[in-house]
Amino acid sequence: MWWNTHIGMPAPLMPVPLAVGDVIPGVEHAAQDGGWGMLMTAALMIAPPMAAIALARARKRRGLDMYIRRIPGISAIDEAVGRAVEMGRPIAFTFGLTLVGPLFFACLGVLSHIARRAARYGSRLLIPQMDVEVMTITQSAVRECFRKEGKPEAYREEDIRFMSDEQFAFASGFMGMVHRERAAACFLFGSFAAESLILAEAGQQAGAIQVAGTTSNEQVAFFITTCDYTIIGEEVYAAGAYLSGDPVQRGSLRGQDAAKMVLLALLLAGAVNSTADVRDAAGSWNSYRTAVARWLVPPSKGWGELAGGESGENGDAGDSADGGG
Known about the structure:
With 325 residues, this protein is of the alpha/beta class. The protein has helices at 37-61, 72-87, 102-121, 132-148, 167-181, 196-206, 220-226, 235-244, 247-276, 291-296, 301-324; strands spanning 2-4, 9-11, 91-96, 125-126, 185-191, 209-214, 229-232. A 5-stranded parallel sheet has the order 4-3-5-6-7, sandwiched between helices. It has a two-stranded antiparallel sheet with strand order 1-2.
């Protein structure tokens, strides 16, 4: 960090102009100078999800679903819906602060399952919203669920209502709805922040059975203490893929697991290789000189100059030390 000597405050670093043809080590294309290791690694990470998605879609066309292990949280979801139906009280569901994205569509799979059960057993489903795009997609999805269950007339547009796009105003609206309607089951799936405890306490005070699922690590502790069951992290995506039956979600989930195994194998191979051969001919430690590192990103002109300069400096220092001795 450069310092401004006049006021004693750090000044931003200025970009250094480069001449045409200059090579910056580590920035050049991975395939330059025959470096196909990094591209092959990227292909190994991308290929399993793509292949799994294609396989899942092919199996779906034949009427088969790709296998995904049923996690315990799914049983908790069915139990909560059953309790609300037995008590004759409504079900509340919220996406929290979730916007349109991968997490939203995973949670939408969970909501669709709950909506089909609510339509089948004649239970009200309350879904307060804080984003208009999420609200529009949710209305269409829930309406379709009621239609597939043969009860389109049971769908109530007013049960999917916009509260506010402000964080705590939305939380207050959710709390009021749960208390007024005396919800028997509350589902909190999505991304949450400081309002998470307010939302969870609302169902707790109303005596509702609660199931939460979030990828927000900071909010997991609050849900564990206030909800009957909490689905943590990537289990949210697993639950959405399992309940929706969507071949793309199921294939993506299986493929990502395979890609993680490939990445883990490469990390272990690199760690073993670096541990076994960590010193160059001069005796200095340089992990880049290992075979795995050179396979992933072969030494280009820039790397060669950098390594040569370091070796030269070490050699000169060694000669000086010998001469002094």
